[in-house]
Amino acid sequence: xxxxDRAVPRRTILAVPGSSDRFIEKARTLGVDGxxxxxxxxxxxxxxxxxxxxxxxxxxxxxxxxxxxVTVRVNGWESPWTYGDVIDVVCGAGSRIDxxxxxxxxxxxxxQALDLLLTQVEHTAGLPVGRIGIEVQIEDATGLxxxxxxxxxxxxxASLVFGPGDFMASLGMGGLNVGAQPAGYPxxxxxxxxxxxxxxxxxxxxQAIDGPFVAIRDVEGFRRSAELSAALxxxxxxxxxxxxxxxxxxxxxxxxxxxxxxQRIMTAYAHATELAQxxxxxxxVDEEMVDxxxxxLAAAILARGxxxxxxxxx
Length: 314
Known about the structure:
With 314 residues, the chain is of the alpha/beta class. The protein has two domains: 5-251, Alpha-Beta Barrel (TIM Barrel); 256-307, no CATH class. It contains twelve helices and ten strands. The strands form two sheets. Strands 1-2-3-4-5-6-7-8 form an eight-stranded parallel barrel, surrounded by five helices. The chain has a two-stranded antiparallel ribbon with strand order 9-10. It starts with 11 loop residues before the first strand and ends in a 7-residue tail after the last helix.
């Protein structure tokens, strides 16, 4: 049984520190598509082990979370905590978890190691084998060089996530504001990495998620950052504060005008195809030529809009 959560919308994924009962409670009702309960960077080394139990208790709370997607970010393989994170959290609350997030991924072997460990733990805990997915973060130069092999490494994979903070440090980029463009560079400093991750993700049927923008009060800065990756085709972005949620949900949903135009294209093309008994190459909609490629674009926009809860005109 392979994880089937690749189609779940991921416009906004909220980061929730696993060491904070207050933030966990606040996350229960927020209008995000997904959350990740964090055991990695947001949790100090001294409380990482005890935070596992806090997450298990929070996941097993019958109130649940409003988000459709609930994941846990374990510590990466470079740390001493990965094995214990997986054992404790999956054995304790595996039925409440959609995926594990693996940070600082540098190779396909690291994903395969997590896949094998998950399979063992699922067997032990009596869980359906393969249901829990894996989402991986690409956070440094080595990970980016191997992103295509990483994307093909496991049937559990659901998404690739850009980690801008560690990536900026890996390359020696200037600037301390994670997710913001470094000062002094006249173009988009993240374009190459974002496009590389996106191409690998799409080649293997995965979603592509942009990383966080840490200036939590600068909503317009967050919006500008999100619009850059959304324009490329990214499915969503991590959010760090409730103030970023509405902007993220809006940016990664189709614009209403585009959604309506996509409906017109699909309706007109279907009608023309029926009249011509399938012998249609191109038609004109809204004074623009539309061929099969245009129909594919329209279908993709409709699918994204439906997933975001947009309603079609009848």
